[in-house]
């Protein structure tokens, strides 16, 4: 299995409030994270960095993940614990009041991938069924789409597109979404902030993901696309690729 993490400030923003990474613990299990921070002053930076660092620290001390149930339990328990850490920090530090961060995180093994998300950072999979989104956005426009009040096309240009309903750190308790899928040779997992998904279409993502380029080149190509379309937001992504036998040599 190979993986790459990449982040870019974009063309407009002065600082990068996104964070994330790929972390392999002593058991050899892999955790990938993308977090998109939000809040006044520098609170967005603080929220995404705290989420990433706390989850990383917990992951490096965790025991071997054997089953999907263990992966789902680990993500649920620890993301909720980290939420409380962020919430308490925001209460104590006036400059961090109201801070929060999206999070999409995946535990990947050679049998399955388990994805958890809060907010509008996304997870996608490319496998034998094609390229598809795995996560649901916790956003106002997505709720309007789900209730039939607007179309998916309308949602792309809706003035309230950036309103996120569920994030890490703004409430004392959070409910996250979980999904486990079979992860097989040849499959590719993409996690990203909305700086990518708001700018690059699924067809464009798929073309890059299935190209013959290496992982670093694919990540750079996706970021370049988002920047070429305006780059108004920070752009962050993780690609995890389950190599088939011929590629592993």
Topology:
Elements: E1 2-8, E2 18-24, E3 30-38, H1 43-60, H2 68-92, E4 100-101, E5 103-108, E6 112-118, E7 122-127, E8 130-133, H3 140-146, H4 152-156, E9 177-182, E10 188-192, H5 194-197, H6 202-209, H7 215-228, E11 235-241, H8 245-248
Antiparallel strand pairs: 1-11, 2-3, 3-4, 3-5, 5-6, 6-9, 7-8, 7-10, 10-11
Helix pairs in contact: 1-2
GO molecular function: protein serine/threonine phosphatase activity
Protein name: Protein phosphatase
InterPro entries: PP2C, PPM-type-like_dom_sf, PPM-type_phosphatase-like_dom
What's the total helix number? 8
Element order: H for helix, E for strand: EEEHHEEEEEHHEEHHHEH
- CATH superfamily caption: PPM-type phosphatase domain
Low-confidence stretches: none
Give the beta-strand count. 11
**Terminal-residue CA separation:** 12 Å
Strand pairing plus helix content: what structural class? alpha+beta
CATH class: Alpha Beta
Number of domains: 1
Organism: Cytobacillus purgationiresistens
InterPro entries: PP2C, PPM-type-like_dom_sf, PPM-type_phosphatase-like_dom
Pfam family, one: PP2C_2
EC number: 3.1.3.16
Task: Spell out the key features of this protein.
249 residues, alpha+beta, Phosphatase 2c, domain 1, 6-stranded antiparallel sheet, 5-stranded antiparallel sheet, 8 helices, 11 strands, 34% helix, 27% strand
Question: Could you give a short description of this structure?
Answer:
34% of the residues lie in helices and 27% in strands. The chain has 249 residues and is of the alpha+beta class.
């Amino acid at each position: 299995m190979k993986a790459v993490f990449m982040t870019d400030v974009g063309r407009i923003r002065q600082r990068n409030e996104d964070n994330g990474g790929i972390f392999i613990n002593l058991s050899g299990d892999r955790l990938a994270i993308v977090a998109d921070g939000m809040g006044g002053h520098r609170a967005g930076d603080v929220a995404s960095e705290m989420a990433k660092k706390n989850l990383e620290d917990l992951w490096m001390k965790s025991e071997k993940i054997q089953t999907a149930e263990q992966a789902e339990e680990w993500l649920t328990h620890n993301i909720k614990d980290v939420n409380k850490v962020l919430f308490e920090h925001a209460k104590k530090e006036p400059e961090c009041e109201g801070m929060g961060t999206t999070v999409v995180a995946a535990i990947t093994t050679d049998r399955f991938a388990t994805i958890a998300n809060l907010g509008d950072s996304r997870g996608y999979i490319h496998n034998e069924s094609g390229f598809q989104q795995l996560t649901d956005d916790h956003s106002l426009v997505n709720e309007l789409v789900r209730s039939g009040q607007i179309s998916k096309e309308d949602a792309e240009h809706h003035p309230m597109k950036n309103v996120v309903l569920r994030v890490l750190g703004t409430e004392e308790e959070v409910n996250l979404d979980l999904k486990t899928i079979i992860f097989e040779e040849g499959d590719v997992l993409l996690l990203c902030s909305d700086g990518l998904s708001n700018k690059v279409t699924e067809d464009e993502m798929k073309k890059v993901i299935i190209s013959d380029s290496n992982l670093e080149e694919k990540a750079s190509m996706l970021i370049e696309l988002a920047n070429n379309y305006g780059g108004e937001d920070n752009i962050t992504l993780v690609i995890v690729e389950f190599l088939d036998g011929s590629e592993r040599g």
